[in-house]
Write a structure and sequence with these properties.
β2 and β3 form a beta hairpin. The protein is globular. The protein has twelve helices and 23 strands. Helices cover 22% and strands 25% of the residues.
Length: 512
């Protein structure tokens, strides 16, 4: 690892000479208007016509790049000549197999390619590194590109000069493909890219931020809401610039020519946004509602303008500072509608969340002030909650809970709170929950003396609640004052109770 880091830093240092400084953070009300930002390096409006390529500096990257043959590339693995079985085995290993190259004329800018992402899609991404030596871990800004663009879109975003001036890192993942709408493959690839950057560079895990425009804005906030594993990378704050936060609403709102010329004359030709969404999620929202909802942050009904209270990932962001941005004259009406509804909803979850209206009459990166956003980021560090409403779409680690669902393909909601001082945990309104494994130390809770567990289920299906890392079995267990039994595993150091009733019941566990 040290060799890899030194090799990369040597390449970066050879092309860097600019000074760095850090700006003062802004102070602003929840909703306000800001001045117009500076112009970008290239036109950056988002094309709604699938047949038009976005001008996002792809020519700079030589797309498709010759990264596999560039002499400055670090070759981590050469698949040439390997049998398919060996390629599959290597691809399944946890260590990313990657190559990278410097971008001539752009100090500190690197392009990476990862070949074993786990999604089945290769990942390419840009990393802007500090151009002068820095001390200690530095913040990382993750930029999510717009529809029809690539990782080269970071050159349009304004975050490269901001990263250089502050001595920060910035990354822009491709997300598997240019038109991904935050689908699962794109999120897998983005996670792998962020993980590799954290392995190679001194990133401060408490100061990782997400920002995206349009398709990328929706992708950024959904990624933040779905990635809450303390052992991984969580966003300390996120900025959505006029993003597509409701994919069902997008499907209904975007133009479709009724498929008369789809895939003609060549496969992939003349596909409109609804066609692309159907390809990504297996069909229309009417038949694949969950697939659209799990990659959205709110599910906005296109006819009633109501937000579905059972499928909003926004609830997972109640503790994540969120800045929602749009231009006053943005012409993309349905995204303006989504943005304004998302703003109102996020401020109902946390009054400290902020909304900004900026001058402008185009749907483009140009209306976002990257300096303002970075100043706002600079005042935020990662803070985990001690209560909340959680929405889960798959088995895995969600904060300090490991969730196992009753059935895959639907959501698992629950409401929770932890008071480490009183040694009290409350879990309620759970549905589609098989087992909830709790890591007490994550919440600062010690399993000694009396620990109170208040439980109620939303579907009365017999939820299991299991403590991990238990030093010793409790000497007594009661439920509503009546002696009960739990399951103690001395080898795994776990203790489990099962609640089957929908009403609120109080379990008291007395540990040595």
């Amino acid at each position: 690892m040290t060799y890899r880091l030194l090799s990369i830093l040597a390449l970066v240092a050879a092309s860097c000479s600019q000074a760095a400084h850090e700006s003062v953070a802004p102070s602003a009300p929840a909703t306000s208007t800001v001045v117009a930002p500076a112009a970008p390096v290239a036109p950056d409006t988002e094309p709604r016509d699938n047949s038009v390529r976005s001008r996002d500096a792809d020519n700079l990257l030589g797309f498709p790049t010759d990264i596999d043959r560039n002499p400055t590339t670090e070759d981590r693995l050469d698949y040439t000549g390997l049998p398919p079985s060996m390629v599959a085995a290597l691809s399944a290993t946890p260590t990313p197999r990657y190559r990278f190259r410097t971008i001539p004329g752009y100090p500190g800018l690197l392009e990476f390619a990862i070949f074993n992402t786990g999604s089945g899609w290769e990942e390419r991404f840009l990393v802007q590194t500090p151009t002068t030596p820095q001390t200690g871990p530095r913040p990382l800004v993750v930029v999510f590109h717009k529809f029809g663009s690539s990782h080269g879109d970071m050159l349009n975003s304004g975050f490269i000069p901001e990263a250089i001036n502050r001595g920060w890192y910035a990354i822009c993942p491709l997300g598997a493909r240019q038109k991904h709408f935050g689908n699962l493959e794109s999120q897998i690839n983005t996670r792998v890219a962020i993980t590799l950057v954290r392995q190679l560079f001194p990133i401060d895990p408490l100061r990782v931020y997400g920002v995206g425009f349009s398709m990328g804005g929706g992708s950024a906030v959904n990624y933040a809401a779905r990635h809450l594993d303390p052992k991984g990378t969580m966003f300390a704050a996120v900025c959505d610039h006029t993003g597509g936060v409701s994919l069902t609403h997008t499907w209904w709102s975007e133009y479709d020519d009724n498929d008369a010329d789809d895939n003609s004359p060549n496969p992939g030709d003349n596909l409109e946004v609804p066609d692309i969404l159907e390809d990504l999620f297996g069909g229309a929202p009417s038949t694949h509602a969950f697939d659209y909802q799990r990659c959205s942050t709110i599910d906005l009904d296109p006819f009633t303008a109501l937000i579905d209270p059972d499928s909003d990932f926004a609830r997972n962001l109640a503790h994540v500072p969120t800045l929602v941005w749009r231009a006053t004259g943005d012409p993309t009406a349905f995204l303006v509608n989504q943005t304004d509804r998302f703003t109102t909803y996020m401020q109902s979850l946390n009054a400290g969340n902020q909304s900004q209206l900026a001058p402008g009459s185009v749907h483009a990166w140009t209306t976002l002030d990257a300096n303002y956003v970075c100043n706002w980021f600079a005042t935020r560090t990662l803070a985990l909650p001690n209560s909340g409403r959680m929405l889960v779409d798959e088995d895995g680690q969600w904060l300090y809970f490991f969730v196992e669902q009753d059935a895959f393909g639907s959501f698992t909601p629950f409401t929770w709170s932890v008071d480490a001082t009183l040694k009290q945990i409350e879990i309620s309104a759970s549905k589609n929950l098989k087992r909830l494994r709790i890591t007490p130390a994550g919440f600062g809770l010690t399993l000694t003396g009396v620990v109170t567990l208040k439980l109620s289920t939303g579907d009365a299906t017999g939820d299991e609640f299991q403590f991990l890392y238990v030093p010793a079995a409790p000497v007594s267990v009661t439920r509503d004052g009546v002696p009960m039994r739990g399951v103690w595993d001395p080898l795994a150091k776990t203790f489990k109770v099962v609640e089957t009733d929908g009403g609120l019941h109080t379990w008291v566990l007395t540990f040595p």
